[in-house]
Amino acid sequence: MEQSPALDVLGIGFLDGQVLLVNILEDQKLISFHQEGKVTSISFRTDLDNQAMMASANLDGDISIWNLEKKRIVCNMKNAHDGVIGKVTFIHGQPLLISSGEDNKIVEWLFDNYSGGDYGWPRVLKQRSGHYSSPQKIRFYGKDGKKILSAGRDQTLRMFSVIRDSQSVELSQRLSGKKAKRETRLPNIIQFAAEETREKDWDNIIACHSGQAFSTTWSMSHKAIGKHEYTPKDFSIVKATAISVCGNFGFVGTLSGNVEMFNMQSGQFRKTFKGHTKTITGIQTDESNKYIYTSSLDKTIKIFKQQDQSLVKSIDISSIPSSIVLHRSSGLIVAICDDMVIRVYDAEAGKLVRQFEGHKNQITDVAFSPDGRWLVSASLDSTIRTWDLPTGYLIDIFKVDSIPISLDFSPTFDFLVTSHSDKVGLCLWSNKAMFEHVEFRKISDVDIATVNVPASEFGPSDEDHVDIDGVDSQTDLVDEQEQINGLRFMLPEQMMEKSLLTLSNEPKNKWQTLLNLDLIKKRNKPVLPKKEPESAPFFLPTSQGVEPKFEKPKNLDSEKIDGDDDEMDVDSKVTFGFGQIETEMTQLLKKGGEINNYLEFFDYMSRQSVSSIDYEIRSLGGESDLLLLFKAIGWQLEEKKLFDATQAYLRVAINVHSDIIVDALTQEDQDADGLKSALKKILDLCETEWGQMDSLIRYTTCLVDHFTML
User: Fold this and answer.
1) Residue pair 65/122 in contact by the 8 Å Cβ criterion
2) Cα 576 to Cα 129, 288, 566, 570, 635, distances in angstroms
C-alpha cells in the first residue's frame, strides 16, 4: 500500500498481481492494473506536471512502469534484480527511481528518454552491488594491493576495490552466438587464477566451474568473460587452474589426473603433463616459467619441467593434499592436507622444512605474506592462525564467529582479506605490524582471542547493549598486550658482532618528530583573533600607562625569603622548589648510575611517546641531573646499541639545556668538571663511531660509482 501524490488516493498491491488505485474518501475504485507475480512494492512519480506515473515490483525481480493518465503500461523491466525486489521508490521531485532486492544490489534508474509525448525505458544511472551468497574464493589482484577478485556461490565473479567502492564491479557473463543458448549464468567458480602481465593484450584470468568439463577465460581489462572456453582433450571435469607468470599460458588439472597447457591468446592446446594417477587438486607455476607444481589425490606433489614435460621430482605426502600454494620468491610450497596439518616443502630440494599442527578441523585456505616470512591459515574450527616460518612458531591466533572459507594477504603487506561461510561481504583486516612496532612471541591455543565479524547493516543494533563478558575479555587482552610490550626481543650474542652499531626498533619519524617538536607545536597552534585586555576590577590598584599594570603593595617590597646567595620574591612562590622534583626518569638514571647499567632507563624511554620524552628531558633540574643523562648516553654509545635513540636524546638535551651547559663550561666546581668530562667522552665516542660509519659509506659509494660508471 502506498500513498499517491493525489489527495485521498492510495495504490494497493495484491498477491495475484493486481494493482488498484482507490479513493478512500469516496470509497471508489479508480484504476486497475495487472502484472505478473505478487506485488511487493509500489511508488508514484512526483516530478511531472502533465503526467502521472507509477512503478510496481514483484517477487521475480521485475519492475513495471505504468502511465496513469493513459491507463497503460510504459515498460516492463524483466530481471531488474536477481530475486525478490524489496522496495522501489521515486525520489521526490526528480526523475529517479531507486530499487533494492535480495540480490544485495541497489540501483538508481534515470528517466531521461522522452519521445512521442511519453517516457520510455529508464536507464541505470548508478548502482552498488555485492555477492548475495557467500564468496568461496578470494585473491588480491595486481601488485598494488588495491583490487580483490572474488568468486561466490551466487555464480558471479566480482572485482572489489579496496580504496573506492564505486570501482567495484561484477565481471559480465554476457554471452553471444552458440554460448547464448545455455543458461544466463555459469555454474559456481571453484578455482581461478589471474596475472596482470597481459591484462591489456588478451584474457588474463582463467576459472574452472563446479562439475564442468571446461574452463573459462576472463578479461580484467574489459571486466567481462573472455573469448575462449578450453575443454580438455579427454573431456574430463576440470578441478584446478593456473596461469603462467608471463600471462601467455593457462593450465587446467582434470579429474583423470592430467594437466594440460593451452595458449591464453588463441585458446589452442599446447602440452599435456602426465604422471598423476588420481584427480588433480592444485597447480602452481614458478616465476621463471621453468617448472610446474601439481598436487593430486594420489598423495604426491610432482614437479614438471615446462619445456619438455619431463618429471623432475615427486614428493610423497602422508596425507591427501587438498590444495597447494607456492611462494615464488622463496621457492616454498605449502600443502593443505586432510589430516589438518600444514606441510611446507622446499621446492628445489623436495624436502619437508616445516610442519604446522594445531587446527581442530579441516583447513580451508592458506596464504603467504609477501616476504614469505609468515603463513596465515584458516580452518573450519573458525580460527585464523599466523605461523612464523623461520622459527616455526605460532605467533598470532584469533577466533571468529563465522567460519572462514578463503583468505589472502595483500602484496603490499598491509591487509589480510577473508570471506566467511554465512557472510556475503569480505572482511579486511589491517596488519598492525605494518603501522606500529609489535612484539612477537610463541603462543598456544590458550591465547585465542574471539573477534566478532561485522554483522549486516540490516541486523539488530547493539549500540545500547553492553556486553560485560566482552568488556572483561577485552580488558584481559589489553593487560596481556601490556605484558607482551614489556618484553624486549634480544638477538643471541653469537649472531651479533660487537663492532657493529645497532639501531632501535622505533620508526624513523619518531625521532624526526622529537627533534622538531617545537616547530610542530608552533605550526599546529591555532591562530586566535587578538583580544582587548580585560579591565581590572575597580578595587585593585593599577599603574597609569598604555598598558595598565597591577601595582605591588608597598608593604611587600621588603619581604624576601632568606637563603644562601639567591633571593626569591614572595610573588614567585609558584616556581619555588621546582628543581627538587624527582621524576621517574631521574630515579632510573640514579639507579643505573649506581650499578653502571642503564638498560632499565632506556627501556623506559623506548615506551614513552614523543611528547613524554620531550617533557622528561625538559624536567631535568640542573647540572647534576644532566650529568646523569650524559653518563647514560655515554654508556649506551660504548655498548653500540640504540644509536639513533641516543643521538636524538642527546640533541634534545643540548638544545633545551644549552644555558646550563655553557655555564658549566665556564665554572670550576665538581659538578661542572663532571659535566665537562661526560661531554668530552660523548664527543670522542660519536667521532669514533661516526668516523667508522662514514668511511664505510664513502667506500661503498665509491665502489657503486666505479662499477656503474656514473
Assistant:
1) yes
2) 68, 75, 12, 9, 33
Smallest CA-to-CA distance from 427 within 148, 188, 171, 129 is with: 148
555 belongs to a structural domain: no
- Which amino acid makes up residue 24? I
Q: Identity (one letter) of the amino acid at 382?
A: S
Residue among 337, 415, 429 nearest 370 (CA): 415
Q: Which three cell numbers stand for residue 4?
A: 499517491
367-419 pLDDT, tens per residue?
Answer: 999 888 899 999 998 899 999 888 888 888 888 888 999 999 999 888 899 99
Structure-block grid coordinates of residue 26: 469516496
CATH number at residue 146: 2.130.10.10
What is the torsional sign of CA 321, 323, 327, 331?
positive
User: Does the residue 619 lie in any domain?
Assistant: yes
Residue 252 has pLDDT above 90, yes or no: yes
Query: Do residue 302 and residue 155 come from a single domain?
Result: yes
Cα–Cα distance, 80 to 163 (Å, whole number): 28
CA distances from 119 to 41, 296, 489 (A): 21, 60, 72
DSSP per position, 266-278? T--EEEEE---SS
Query: Closest by alpha carbon to 106, among 168, 26, 45?
Result: 168
Count of residues making up the chain: 710
- Asked if 149 and 139 count as a contact pair (C-beta separation under 8 A), the reply is yes
CA atoms of 99 and 208, how far apart (whole Å): 33
- Quick one: 116 and 154 in the same domain? no
Residues 6+ apart with CB under 8 A from 10: 1, 2, 3, 4, 21, 22, 24
| Residue 112 identity | D
Contact 417, 427 (CB under 8 A): yes
**Number of other CB atoms surrounding residue 328 within 10 Å:** 15
Return mean pLDDT, the chain: 80
Query: H or E stretch including 322?
Result: strand 321-327
